[in-house]
Amino acid sequence: MPLRKTISAIAISLAAVTALSGTAVACMANAPFVVEDVRQADIVIDGVLTGYKVVSPGRPGTLDDYGLLTIRVDEALRGEVSGEVQIYWWNSTFAMPEKVKLGERVLVAAARANHAGLPLRGTSATVYGSRRPDLPQLLQAPCAPAFLLPYTPVAAQNIVTLLDGGTVAPHDYFAAGWLY
């Protein structure tokens, strides 16, 4: 009987933690950022982040939330895009940032909605369907940082090298700071 009570107590505790935790612990472990994911992109942009909006079609702060990024394209490193491009972002860390640093030069990789799939790795390989199939989706492996990088000459050169089929040395792509 004591073993059954212990198991019941553990089960109830786990259920309570899961119910009360919300988005804070949706990723049990973070997955690494892998720059080689850029090879899966349909669109790669060197540009300026000019707009960001969180859209809450359901109850705010839920998995229904997504972001819309607006990027002024200075150069298309892959794909045919120009002017201003809007990109759908469903943040696979299960919570959209309230704001991002606008006016920053960025390197962005995205896949078209009909693309075979986003990068998968880590403890959560959950990727939900796009709520905006009319827009390209920001590349982001589950529980990993998004492919929304601050521009640096090294990062840009590495991305071009990877898109050309080459390899690159390890590099901290977020050393210049996070945009969100």
UniProtKB/TrEMBL annotation:
Keyword annotations: Signal
Superkingdom assignment: Bacteria
Cleavable signal peptide: 1-26
Annotated protein name in UniProt: Uncharacterized protein
